[in-house]
Design the sequence.
């Protein structure tokens, strides 16, 4: 079925081809792609869920005024689970390796920010500056 459309300057002909049956190999590829899509989706979802749990725990710990240094241990356990989920997703190529590295780095930076906020960790640059001040005095 061909329809002629008349735009302002040119004539355009639009033809719709009748749908053809997929070849057997194409149908098999479609089935395989769907299987992979579902599998990859579950891997990515698991990694995202683990990351959310870590970020929520870190936010709660940061807001807590009287937090103790040993409370970070539970967060570290969650971070380990998140790292594992991310690494598994990278291994089966559901995530690109750089994406996995970036997500792990974000978790580590967020954890370090909470430790600095509570004074459980002193960055190397700040520690060096304190030593220089102490030596100068």
Sequence:
């Amino acid at each position: 079925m061909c329809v002629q459309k008349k735009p302002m300057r040119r004539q355009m002909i639009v033809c719709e081809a009748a749908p053809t049956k997929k070849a057997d190999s194409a149908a098999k590829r479609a089935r395989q792609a769907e299987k992979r899509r579902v599998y990859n989706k579950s891997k990515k979802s698991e990694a995202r869920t683990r990351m959310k749990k870590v970020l929520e725990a870190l936010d709660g710990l940061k807001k807590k005024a009287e937090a103790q240094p040993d409370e970070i241990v539970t967060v570290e356990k969650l971070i380990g689970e998140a790292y594992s989920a991310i690494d598994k997703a990278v291994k089966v190529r559901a995530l690109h390796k750089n994406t996995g590295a970036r997500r792990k780095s974000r978790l580590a930076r967020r954890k370090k920010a909470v430790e600095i906020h509570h004074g459980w960790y002193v960055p190397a640059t700040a520690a060096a500056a304190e030593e220089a001040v102490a030596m100068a005095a």
In short: The chain has one domain: 29-136. The first strand starts at residue 2 and ends at 5. The CA atoms of residues 53 and 78 lie 7 Å apart.
